[in-house]
Amino acid sequence: MSLPPLDWDDRFANADGYLFGTTANYFLTEVAHLLPNHGTALAVADGEGRNGVWLARHGLDVTSVDVSPTAQKRAADLAAEFDVSLNLMIGDAHDWDYPENAFNVVVEVFTQFSNPEQRARKWAGMRRALKPGGTLVIVGYRIEQLNNTSGGPRHPDHLYTADLLKEAFADFTLKRMSQDDLEMAEGAGHAGMSSVIGAVWRKPE
């Protein structure tokens, strides 16, 4: 099932401040020890830059891609506030021209308004972009999120299960997978009880 496309630029433009806050996603910060502190990183559908800025502060040369020009402007402002730089690019995560073997780290956090076909294209691009031996981080809502009102799509095809993620990246080495039910406080867009899954993999050499 496909959901009606969201006008993300309009959603960001009409938000009261940063829609998802200015601090990085909790799971991303928890797995900092699994990430290199130098090299290149791609932040997919990075919105207003909270995760891209965190990666840059971690020591990485970050390319931050998002479909919304408004969000990218705010990402630039946030990067300036923390005295880091981002390579900002406007693009749709489903159809962006992912370069081959270009990044040591690829991060995707809560990009779940992708239907299964779009998700497959996006993940294929992310695979292609990650260097051999590189680290992949994905964070999203589990199907149990349907019981909550804190964010995310309202159709199960757009939500994650452990089996879905394990199957999609079965040829990668799983370094960590965590299923959490917690009170989120990541801006107005992700606030309240949430059912989340996060995973970290290493791409084969």
Automatic annotation (TrEMBL):
Q: Indicate the transmembrane segments per the record.
A: none
Any matching Pfam family: Methyltransf_25
- List residues of the Methyltransferase domain: 42-134
Q: Which InterPro entries match?
A: Methyltransf_25 (IPR041698), SAM-dependent_MTases_sf (IPR029063)
Task: Write down the CDD domains for this protein, in alphabetical order.
Answer: AdoMet_MTases
Keywords carried by this UniProt record:
Methyltransferase, Transferase
What's a single GO MF annotation on this record? methyltransferase activity
Could you tell me the superkingdom of the organism this chain comes from? Bacteria
Gene Ontology biological process terms in this record: methylation
Q: What is this protein called?
A: SAM-dependent methyltransferase
Q: Which organism is it from?
A: Marivivens niveibacter
